[in-house]
Every structure is written in C-alpha cells, then in structure tokens.
Design goal:
This protein has 327 residues and is α+β, with helices and mostly antiparallel strands. The chain contains 7 helices and 16 strands. It has a single domain, classed as Double-stranded beta-helix. The model has no long low-confidence stretch (mean pLDDT 93). Bound molecules: 2-oxoglutaric acid and fe (ii) ion.
C-alpha cells in the first residue's frame, strides 16, 4: 500500500472518531485490517438515530463490529435494531423452515463464504446474536476482502480486475463429516435439500466497488462455481490462490462468543467461517441479513442473473457514499 493511501485511511479514521464521540459511542479497533468492539450502546429498536449512523460508519471502517453485554436483546429487539441499519430481508431465499424473521444457525458454517452471494442483490450486512453456546470452541472468523484486494501485486490485479465469477446455491461443501452421527448426517442432508429447493445462479464481478466506501474488494467464497472466461481445470487453482490471499491470518478477525454478544459484518467487504471445534455440543446463533445493492465492477457493469428471482427475499438498497469516504 502506498504512503498516501495509509495517510488517507488514518485521516478517515480520525474523522470517524469525531462521529463516534458526538454520538456517545466508543469504537475500539481490534485489528489492523478488520474488527472493532463498540461500547456505550444498548442495542434495540430505540437506539438513537445518531448512534445508528455512527454504527454504520464504524462498520464501513472496520468491516466487523462486535457488541458485548446485550443480554437483554431477544429476537424482536434484534429485528427492531436491524431495521435501524437497513431493510431486513427474509431470513433466506430458500431456507424457510428456520424462523420467519431470523435465520437460526445450528452448528457452524465451517467454510469460507460471503452470505447469499448466489443472488444478484447480495445482502449488505448480517447481524448475528449468540443464543446457545458450547462450553468451548465455536468462534467465528471473518476476513477482509478489501485488504486482500489492496495487497494484490499489480499482475494479479490486472488478472482479476476484469474477471467474472458464477455463484450458485448448489454448493458442494456438504461432504460427509466422518465424526457426524446418523442424526447429524440426516440433518445436513435435509438442510442441503431445502437450501437447494430453488436454483440461483448469478454472475458477479470478482472485483466489486463498495457503494458506501468506494473501496474495491474480492467477491468470492464457497458459492463460486466457475470463472466463465477460463477453462474448468483452471478454476480451482486460481480460486484457491485468491481465497488463500483473502484468508491470510493477518486479514482476519476472530471472535470467541459469550452470551449477550452481537456481531455485525459488512457482507460487501468480508467473508466468514464458523469454526466447528465444539464436538457434539449445541450451538445456536440467530441471524438477520439486511438488503444490499447489486454489485458493480470497476468498469461500472452490474452483476447479472443467470437463473432465479430473489425479489421475494430482498429489496435492492440504494446505497450512498458515506461522508468520510467522499471522493
Ligand atoms: O457459524 C458461524 O459462526 C457463522 C454462521 C454464518 O455463516 C452466518 O451466520 O452467516
Ligand atoms: Fe454466513
């Protein structure tokens, strides 16, 4: 990264600090590229508008923000708070059996992904609340897809800047877990069946421009099936090369959950992974996703639907550039 870019980022973070202190919240940065803890807020539908705005900014700057000690929050409170940050989507385009407002995550989503990237209107953010936790393990890790893009050497940037990827909900990551019992295997198969009960395929630019920050990020993750411009045999190695750069430990932020914790991630600037290291213990988290825009590549071209209509699942947000990111 150039010195100018670092200066700009430092200036932006300074400007953001004024917004936080005017709103009476504290934002503690927890990593160089990603992650911060916000304190001074009691989450719910009655968060003042100024605080909600400051939280939106902290999210854009830090990509993931966590709140602790929110034990008072229930599903309705989580939903009412979500509405202050955007327009909640349905829980999922195809998974309807796990609640009508929130998606219940049971177990852990242990593969790197950006949420619901197989539709055209990829959600802008997810709000996750711990409901039942194992006594060990079960952390969630996020990776900054902006940092990964910014770290690409020029020849790799040239390679990805014009590349498109096909995302599909027919993912192939439900391989049998050798430790899973019969019931767990049945649960996974049922879930996969529901997940794929309608087919969604979308072409997204591999490099998207964030509508609120103008930052470029890599839009990939486990729903990607193909780079249509390349041969099938070339897909795996290039996909893995880029995923390895995204998930470099320096670009990640890991959170060990306690009850009362809430995490929000900018789904336009991150991937995440739920770590399945808690044996057979119960783990349950409740998620709300917020409507996002249709991604736009560097050349101004928008993502294109190949199959599936997600309009029942989510509106399309008209996003605007945030003040401190003004060009
Ligand atoms: O299991 C986890 O920690 C992550 C769950 C997840 O992928 C999600 O909530 O979107
Ligand atoms: Fe997820």
């Amino acid at each position: 990264m150039t010195v100018t870019a670092i200066d700009n980022r430092a200036d932006r973070e300074e400007a953001a600090k004024n917004v936080y202190s005017n709103a009476g919240i504290t934002v503690d940065k927890l990593g160089e590229h990603i992650g911060a803890r916000i304190s001074g807020v009691r989450l719910g539908g009655d968060v003042p508008a100024e605080q909600a705005e400051a939280i939106r900014l902290a999210l854009a700057v830090n990509k993931v923000v966590v709140f602790t000690d929110q034990q008072h929050l229930d599903d309705d409170g989580q939903y009412a708070f979500a509405e202050l940050l955007g327009e909640p989507t349905l829980p999922h385009p195809t998974v309807t059996s796990r609640g009508s407002q929130l998606l219940t995550i049971e177990g852990a989503a242990n593969s790197w992904h950006t949420d619901v990237s197989f539709v055209d209107r990829v959600p802008k953010a997810s709000i996750l609340r711990a409901v039942t936790l194992p006594s060990w393990g079960g952390a969630t890790t996020w990776a900054s897809t902006v940092a990964a893009y910014e770290q690409l050497p020029a020849p790799l940037r040239a390679l990805v800047d014009g590349l498109w990827a096909k995302h599909s909900n027919f993912y192939d990551y439900v391989t049998a877990d050798p430790d899973a019992g019969d019931e767990e295997t049945r649960r996974r198969v049922d879930h996969y069946r529901e997940f794929t009960s309608a087919e969604y395929e979308t072409l997204h630019p591999v490099v998207r421009v964030h509508p609120e920050t103008g930052e470029r990020s890599l839009l990939l993750g486990h729903f990607v099936k193909e780079f249509p411009a390349l041969k099938p045999a070339e897909f795996g190695p290039l996909f893995q090369l880029l995923q390895n750069r995204i998930t470099r430990l320096e670009n990640t932020f890991r959170w060990n959950w306690s009850l009362g914790d809430v995490a929000i991630w900018d789904n336009r600037a991150t991937q995440h992974y739920g770590i399945a290291d808690f044996g057979g213990q119960k783990r349950e988290l409740h998620r709300i996703t917020l409507a996002g825009d249709v991604p736009v590549g560097i050349d101004g071209e928008s993502s294109r639907i190949i199959s599936g209509d997600a309009s029942h699942y989510s509106g399309v947000e008209e996003a605007r550039r945030l003040g401190v990111y003004a060009a």
